[in-house]
């Protein structure tokens, strides 16, 4: 090891979470009957803009809509001691569209998340099939972890007809859908085989030299790959690494758990908090060291940026939120990405016309137009927006037997637009939207990072 | 690095969208950033230019004729009559589903409250409902939608002396939707023409709705529904209902949440996309850098401040409702650039004792020079590369004058066009 490569004196290990002495997570909900739906409730002036954005209210007669779930329910709780959270809150898909809509800044999704947490912890029968099913769906990471050990067997078993029939009948998991395939090699396995952080540092150094950047340029990011690009689509994670290295960034892949998104949506806040603690501790020390947290899944970046600080009080949480970015967004801010894309072209497998769908959680971060605008001037590929409807799957929502039909009804508009679009390949940042797009159209779905890799990386 | 463009428009309401569109059509590289959804979703979707004078005279027949006698501080006076006309031409071109461009005269449209409103442009869906049309009219209300009580609206219209007979009937919407179903629920059902249960039988929604209305029809030639007839395909739905009923079908614009407003917003965003502009919504502009010139502004995303820089800026953040102008116990202010907002020192002078009195606060907003540059307290322009458009402007009371959309479109057009010319 040369001097330049000697790690700093500290015990700092960018890959392990910092579960040191000082780390003490604080619980916002000291005891579970203390949920507070209040923040911002009084700002609601009942304009119903949120209701016009809710994809569930559009197709589901029984769903009273975001205005009721949030501010109105809160008022009911205040005026009536016996009022318990309405069970319709379980029908909210946590798409967070209402959040983005409210002209008055009422934090609707936070209210729904806390209401759902209260409903599940106080009103839901923990032995019920629904609870067990939701818990399994929410803890996708656990199933994926085991499945990835035996990917071939898992791929077969998970989509084995009779088994799926049993799952639907006993657990309420729809048999209409195909389970996503597990990769033969996870992203982390690939990352380790490739030489981990040391290899990335070397690649970044070479790229900086090529680009005439200073040797010691402070370019380093911590990749939050999430479960899906680890277990199911490692090609997305690889594209992220290669693109960043190409711009001279050193990448680390710290230890991480599920972002918690499926848990928020199912009211499993305790599960979500456990995972969040690991993720925040992992990322916060890196942030202190000058790293930014980068996610390629828009629900993961949404969770780290917005839902964590809204729901939990964990040391370092705000710092992590402020320093988390979506992968393409970060490059747009820090590099002349537009210029490089304009000067590039693609051929081969990704020289395609793509039908692009912006995930709701990217919309909420203001990223819904990013892919379309970025690739406007790219030679060899075309990206066409298929409209602003919700895809309808919303993570675990569309996997529930009783929600399947509604999920497809919400997605109908997107399927139609995909069919009318020029291309026969889909594109989106969200793994579950990708599942829905594939399910409804039969198209293969790619991630913008893959196209970026094809355009910019040798 | 910062995200760069030639013209940066802040605010995605009618004012901001028109600015961005005008600038993009001038050939500038435009970026529009907006925090939340605009007040269009709450507005009727009608485009009023000027219905009444500030003194309350009206309804005006020709809004353009009245503009030169408006007070000098009025935004229309800053941009001039010709610009108002040009701006509306841009609008007509961008939103071909609107009507009214064939005349300079205000059209008279029935509202969901049963009054008659003078307006300059209206959605095609409302056109069979014009109050100047003498055909007899049936209004159909939906039992669950308390905002539109058809018999009551009909009685009100009748009392205004409309030149036709008008009747109101109330039906249950087929399919027994929940009592407070969202307007988008009705729209989606009709858009997709999904089947609904009618007395145990499944019938496509459009068919079922026509079946409910048919027996109620006497010898009217047109039927008006509250504005719930579809989001994506309103024209096809009106045609389908009209065919089955053998009459012309129209929508009466509704209060918030408003489908016509939502459709208008969609149409403008689509036009802007077509014109090649960049668009980002969901995060607020919170701060800026620069002295006499604005160098960059910062968009806040969950604590991170993302720099955006441009040569020219347009401030179109709306009025009190859109959060472009705010007030506290100390005073009234414009929150991003802290532009001066002229207002009475004493809070008790901001409003009148009566609810519908002549409140001063209704006219609060930034004051500008003739180039729409905001002025500071000593009447110098605040920044050389900032213009303001839409309801962030002061000097007019859109609710009283019925001029909201017109002012936003006219000033948006002027600000966007001039910003683009300067950026070249
Ligand atoms: C209930 C109601 C009914 C109306 N009915 C009619 C009618 O029938 N006819 C008519 O002609 N007019 C009507 N109007 C008026 C008309 O709709 C408005 O005058 C016009 O739409 C205002 O447009 P705007 O672009 O100036 O502002 P707004 O529509 O308020 O848009 C402002 C935009 O700026 C954004 N913004 C605010 N702060 C920031 C920030 N810091 N950073 C980034 N973005 C920001 C907001 O999120 C919003 O999207 C009505 C208005 C209301 C409220
Ligand atoms: S999060 Fe989505 S589904 Fe839930 S209430 Fe809001 S808009 Fe509706
Ligand atoms: S959009 Fe906001 S203010 Fe309007 S009803 Fe919903 S929560 Fe209330």
UniProtKB/TrEMBL annotation, chain A:
GO terms for biological process: anaerobic respiration. Residues 81-114 form the 4Fe-4S ferredoxin-type domain. Keywords: 4Fe-4S, Iron, Iron-sulfur, Metal-binding, Repeat. One of its GO terms (cellular component) is membrane. Pfam families: CCG (PF02754), Fer4_8 (PF13183). Signal peptide: none annotated. Residues 1-32 are annotated as: Disordered. Gene3D superfamilies: Alpha-helical ferredoxin (1.10.1060.10). It comes from the Archaea. One of its GO terms (molecular function) is 4 iron, 4 sulfur cluster binding. Residues 1-12, 21-32 have a biased composition (Acidic residues). InterPro entries: 4Fe4S_Fe-S-bd (IPR017896), 4Fe4S_Fe_S_CS (IPR017900), Cys_rich_dom (IPR004017), G3P_DH_GlpC_su (IPR017753), Helical_ferredxn (IPR009051). The keyword ATP-binding does not apply. This is sn-glycerol-3-phosphate dehydrogenase subunit C.
UniProtKB/TrEMBL annotation, chain B:
The keyword Oxidoreductase applies. One of its GO terms (cellular component) is glycerol-3-phosphate dehydrogenase (FAD) complex. InterPro entries: FAD-dep_OxRdtase_2_FAD-bd, FAD-oxidoreductase_2, FAD/NAD-bd_sf, G3P_DH_GlpB_su. Residues 7-407 form the FAD-dependent oxidoreductase 2 FAD-binding domain. Coiled coil: none annotated. Gene3D superfamilies: FAD/NAD(P)-binding domain. Keywords: Flavoprotein, FMN, Oxidoreductase. It comes from the Archaea. Pfam families: FAD_binding_2 (PF00890). GO terms for molecular function: glycerol-3-phosphate dehydrogenase (quinone) activity. This is Anaerobic glycerol-3-phosphate dehydrogenase subunit B.
């Amino acid at each position: 090891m040369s001097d330049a490569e000697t790690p700093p004196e500290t015990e700092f290990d960018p890959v392990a979470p910092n579960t040191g002495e000082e780390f003490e997570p604080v619980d916002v909900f000291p005891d579970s009957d203390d949920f507070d739906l209040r923040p911002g409730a009084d700002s609601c002036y009942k304009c119903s803009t949120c209701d016009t954005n809710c994809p569930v209210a559009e197709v589901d007669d029984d769903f009273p809509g975001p205005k009721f779930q949030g501010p109105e329910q809160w008022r009911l709780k205040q005026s009536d001691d016996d009022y318990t959270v309405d069970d319709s809150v379980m029908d909210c898909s946590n798409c967070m569209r209402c959040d983005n809509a409210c002209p008055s800044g009422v934090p609707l999704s936070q209210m729904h998340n806390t209401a759902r947490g209260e409903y599940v912890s106080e009103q839901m029968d923990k032995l019920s099939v629904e609870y067990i099913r939701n818990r399994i769906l929410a803890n996708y990471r656990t199933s994926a972890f085991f499945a990835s050990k035996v990917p071939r067997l898992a791929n077969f078993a998970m989509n084995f007809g009779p088994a799926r029939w049993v799952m639907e009948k006993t657990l309420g998991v729809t048999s209409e859908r195909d389970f996503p395939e597990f990769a033969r090699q996870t992203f982390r396995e690939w990352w380790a085989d490739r030489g981990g952080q040391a290899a990335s540092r070397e690649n970044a150094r070479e790229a900086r030299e090529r680009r005439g950047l200073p040797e010691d340029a402070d370019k380093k990011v911590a990749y939050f790959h999430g479960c899906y690009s680890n277990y199911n689509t490692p090609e997305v994670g690889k594209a992220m690494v290669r693109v960043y290295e190409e711009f001279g960034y050193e990448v680390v892949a710290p230890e991480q758990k599920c972002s918690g998104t499926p848990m928020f949506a199912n009211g499993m806040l305790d599960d979500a908090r456990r995972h969040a603690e690991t993720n925040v501790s992992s990322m916060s020390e890196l942030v202190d060291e000058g790293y930014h947290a980068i996610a390629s899944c828009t629900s993961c970046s949404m969770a780290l940026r917005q839902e964590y600080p809204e729901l939990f009080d964990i040391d370092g949480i705000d710092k992590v939120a402020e320093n988390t970015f979506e992968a393409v967004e970060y490059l747009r801010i820090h590099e002349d990405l537009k210029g490089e894309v304009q000067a590039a072209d693609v051929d081969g497998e990704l020289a395609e016309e793509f039908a692009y769908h912006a995930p709701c959680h990217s919309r909420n971060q203001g990223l819904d137009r990013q892919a379309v605008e970025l690739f406007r001037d790219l030679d060899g590929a075309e990206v066409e927006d298929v409209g602003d409807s919700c895809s309808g799957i919303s993570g675990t929502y569309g996997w529930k037997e009783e929600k399947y039909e509604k999920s497809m009804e919400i997605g109908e508009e997107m399927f139609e637009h995909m069919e009318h679009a020029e291309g026969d390949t889909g594109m989106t940042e969200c793994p579950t939207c990708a599942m829905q797009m594939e399910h409804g159209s039969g198209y293969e779905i790619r991630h913008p990072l893959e196209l970026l890799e094809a355009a910019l990386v040798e | 690095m910062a995200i760069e463009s030639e013209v940066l428009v802040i605010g995605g309401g009618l004012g901001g969208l028109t600015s961005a569109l005008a600038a993009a059509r001038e050939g500038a590289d435009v970026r529009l950033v907006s925090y939340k959804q605009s007040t269009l979703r709450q507005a009727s979707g009608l485009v009023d230019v000027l219905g009444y004078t500030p003194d309350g005279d009206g309804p005006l027949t020709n809004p353009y004729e009245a503009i030169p006698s408006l007070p000098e501080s009025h935004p229309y006076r800053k941009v001039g009559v010709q610009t108002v006309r040009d701006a509306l031409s841009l609008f007509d071109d961008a939103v071909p589903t609107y009507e009214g461009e064939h005349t300079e005269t205000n059209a008279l449209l029935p509202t969901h409250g049963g009054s008659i409103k003078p307006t300059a442009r209206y959605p095609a869906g409302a056109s069979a409902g014009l109050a100047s049309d003498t055909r007899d009219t049936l209004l159909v209300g939906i039992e669950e939608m308390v905002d539109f009580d058809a018999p009551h609206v009909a009685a009100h219209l009748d009392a205004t002396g409309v030149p036709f007979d008008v009747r109101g009937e109330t039906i249950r919407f087929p399919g027994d939707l929940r009592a407070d179903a969202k307007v988008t629920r009705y729209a989606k059902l009709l858009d997709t023409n999904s089947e609904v249960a009618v007395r145990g039988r499944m019938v496509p929604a459009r068919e079922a709705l026509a079946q409910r209305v048919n027996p109620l029809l006497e010898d009217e030639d047109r039927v008006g529904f509250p504005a719930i007839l579809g989001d994506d395909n309103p024209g096809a739905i009106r045609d389908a209902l009209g065919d089955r009923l053998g009459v012309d079908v129209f929508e009466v614009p509704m209060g918030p949440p408003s489908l016509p407003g939502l459709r208008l917003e969609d149409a403008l965003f689509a036009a802007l996309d077509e014109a090649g502009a960049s668009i980002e919504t969901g995060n607020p502009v919170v701060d800026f850098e620069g002295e006499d010139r604005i160098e960059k502004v910062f968009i806040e995303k969950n604590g991170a401040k993302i720099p955006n820089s441009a040569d020219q800026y347009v401030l179109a953040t709306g009025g009190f409702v859109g959060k472009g102008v705010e007030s506290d116990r100390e005073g009234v202010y414009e929150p991003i650039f802290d532009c001066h907002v002229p207002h009475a020192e004493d809070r008790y002078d901001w409003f009148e004792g009566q609810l519908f009195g002549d409140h001063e606060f209704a006219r609060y907003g930034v004051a500008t020079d003739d180039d729409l540059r905001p002025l500071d307290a000593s009447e110098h322009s605040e920044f050389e590369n900032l213009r303001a458009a839409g309801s962030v402007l002061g000097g007019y009371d859109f609710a009283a004058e019925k001029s909201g959309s017109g002012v936003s479109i006219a000033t948006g057009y002027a600000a966007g066009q001039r910003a683009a010319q300067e950026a070249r």
